[in-house]
Every structure is written in C-alpha cells, then in structure tokens.
Specification:
Elements: E1 3-9, E2 19-21, H1 29-38, H2 40-50, E3 57-64, H3 65-71
Antiparallel strand pairs: 1-2, 1-3
Length: 81
C-alpha cells in the first residue's frame, strides 16, 4: 500500500476543506510519518506557498492511497482561494 503526506489547510466553511497532497510515495506508514515529522516546517511552507500564502496550514498526516480516494480531493484550480 502507498502512503502520502497530506497537509490540511485553513478552511472557511464546513464544505470547503482544502488540502495539499505531496506526490512523495511511501511504501510504509512509519516511513511516511518519520519523513513528515522531520520535514514538517518545509512541508507546511510548500503547501502554504501552493495556496499563494492565503491559506495557512493547520495539520499534516500520512494518508493511505485508499484514504486519498475517500477524501475525494479537487484540483487547486477548481477551488477559490
């Protein structure tokens, strides 16, 4: 199973929960967690930058491939910043 680092950004309502999914692919959850802990500041910076510094990051976590599908993410250009 593949694992991905997901950053959850500040949201303004209950229907709009922006996230940033990093394309780094980890085979083990523990490997993903170790990477996320070690690089949290940089990951937050990159996610914040991707949202033009208008939506600050709130939290990050490692999510499985199946979990990503359940989050039903939309592309950044499909949401209003």
């Amino acid at each position: 199973m593949s694992w991905f680092v997901v950053v959850f950004m500040l949201f303004t309502n209950n229907y709009d929960r922006p996230i940033y999914i990093f394309q780094y692919n980890f085979k083990e959850m523990d490997e993903c967690i170790a990477f996320a802990k070690e690089n949290q500041d940089g990951l937050f910076y990159l996610a914040h930058k991707a949202y033009d510094f208008k939506r600050p990051p709130l939290n990050l976590m490692c999510v499985s491939e199946q979990g990503i599908k359940e989050l039903n993410p939309r592309r950044r250009d499909e949401i209003e910043i």
